[in-house]
Amino acid sequence: xxxxxxxxxxxxxxxxxxxxxxxxxxxxxxxxxxxxxxxxxxxxxxxxxxxxxxxxxxxxxxxxxxxxxxxxxxxxxxxxxxxxxxxxxxxxxxxxxxxxxxxxxxxxxxxxxxxxxxxxxxxxxxxxxxxxxxxxxxxxxxxxxxxxxxxxxxxxxxxxxxxxxxxxxxxxxxxxxxxxxxxxxxxxxxxxxxxxxxxxxxxxxxxxxxxxxxxxxxxxxxxxxxxxxxxxxxxxxxxxxxxxxxxxxxxxxxxxxxxxxxxxxxxxxxxxxxxxxxxxxxxxxxxxxxxxxxxxxxxxxxxxxxxxxxxxxxxxxxxxxxxxxxxxxxxxxxxxxxxxxxxxxxxxxxxxxxxxxxxxxxxxxxxxxxxxxxxxxxxxxxxxxxxxxxxxxxxxxxxxxxxxxxx
Amino acid sequence: xxxxxxxxxxxxxxxxxxxxxxxxxxxxxxxxxxxxxxxxxxxxxxxxxxxxxxxxxxxxxxxxxxxxxxxxxxxxxxxxxxxxxxxxxxxxxxxxxxxxxxxxxxxxxxxxxxxxxxxxxxxxxxxxxxxxxxxxxxxxxxxxxxxx
Lengths: 407, 148
Known about the structure:
With 407 residues, chain A is mainly α. Chain A has helices at residues 2-21, 34-41, 63-73, 86-89, 134-143, 152-162, 164-171, 190-197, 201-222, 231-240, 251-261, 297-305, 324-327, 363-372, 390-400; strands spanning 280-281, 340-341. Chain A has a two-stranded antiparallel ribbon.
C-alpha cells in the first residue's frame, strides 16, 4: 500500500513537473503559461526603470555636461595622432560599436568594442569590469597606448585650450596648466612617465581633476544613449496588457522565445529589460591564438579596487555609502577566471562578430557554441550542452532578430 | 492476477518513475524552483544552537539591486545572541554558482540583530543564503531558500 501511495505521489509530481514545461497550446494565440508571461514581460524595454543616479558624478544628469561630453566624444585632438576619438570605435551610426573583432585606435586592442546603449545601468564597465563608473571607464581608452594613445596632461591641456568656458561653467575655473609638459602621466610612454615624476603633487592633482572631469562630461553624454523599442517589446507589452499578439512575432520566433526563457536557460544571464545581469561568466569562449592569455574578471578586480578614479577615490563625488558594489565586490575564486560581462542582446544580430575578442563570427555559430558547450581554455565554463535540434537553434536565432533595432 | 498481468503491472511503474526522471531533468534545465521548497525566513540552525531570522532591506527583493538584510540571532529559548561573528554565503544550487557579491556583516544593531550589507541576486530563480554563526553557544549554520 505504501508503495502504491508513493507511486501515486511520484506520478503526480512527474506530471506536475512535465506540465510545467509543456507548451500550453500549439497555436500562437495562447502559447504561454503564467510563469512564462512573467519572464517575458520582465524583458520588455517598457520595464526598464529610470536611469539610476550616479552619485560619483555630480554632473551625470546635467544637460550642459552632456553637451560638452558629446563634443569630447568625437574630438580627435584627444589622441596621439590627431585621428582617434571615442566615436572612432563607438560609431553612433552603428549602435556605438565598430563591427570589428578587435577594436582599432592608434593600434589594435585585444578586445571587441562594446556598444554603449544602456551601459549607464551597469555597475561595471568593460568586458572584465575593471572600471566602476562610466566616467572612469571613459578615461581608460584615452591613456591606452593602442586606443587614443595620449595622456591625461595632454587631455587637460586640450580642455583648457578648446573648452575653457564650458568646462569652467560646469566644474569651476581651470587650474593653470601652462607650465606643464606637453605629455605626462603616471603610466604609459617612458617620456610621459618621466615628465610626470617632475610634477608637484599639486600639479598632479590638478591634471587628475581636469582629466576626471572630462570623463564625467563624456559619461553625462553616454547616459543619454539608451536602447530603443524593438518588435519583441511590442509583443511583450501586448502580452502583458492582455492584447492580441498575432502578427507581432512569427510562430518560429515564439518558439525561439520559449526556448530562450525555458530549455535554453539563456534568460538566466540575459535577464531584465537590457537582457543582461551585468555580471561576469565563463562561457568557455575560445582563446585567440595570437593574443596573450586573457583571465577576464580575475585580473580586473584588483585593477578596479586600486584605481584612483574608482567610486571611493579622491575624484569621485560619492560618499563611501554610495560605493556598495565596489566595497562588496567578490575579489577571488575560480568563478572569476576568464569570466566576462554578459552583453546586452538588444540589437545583437545586427552587430557581429561576437564575444569579448570577436572570436565567433555569426549568431548561428554563437548558438552552436552554447549548444555544444566546449570546455573553457582556463577556469571552468558555466555552460552545459543544450543538445538542441537545428530547428530549435534556428528558432532561437529568429527570436534574437526580434531584438533588432530599426534600421 | 495472472503472472503476465503482474509483469505488465510491474512495467507500469516505470512510466511514472521514468516521467519523474525526465521531469526532474527538464525542471533543472528550466530552473523551476522545487515545489516543496521551504521558504521560511526564520530557521533553527543545523545543530539546534540558535534560531536565526532574515529580513530583506528592500521589498520586493529586486534582481540586480545591491541591498542590505537584517539578521536576528537568538538562542532556542529566545534570548538575543550578542557579539556573534556571522558570515554570509550563498548561490544558486541548480546553476552551481555563488552570489555575485561578497556580503558582510557590517554592524551589530543590538538585541541580537545584525546588518548584512552588499547582498545582490543577478538572476531569477532559486537562491540560498547560508549564515555561519559563531556565538556564545558555539558555531552553527542555517541555510535559507529564496525564490526570486
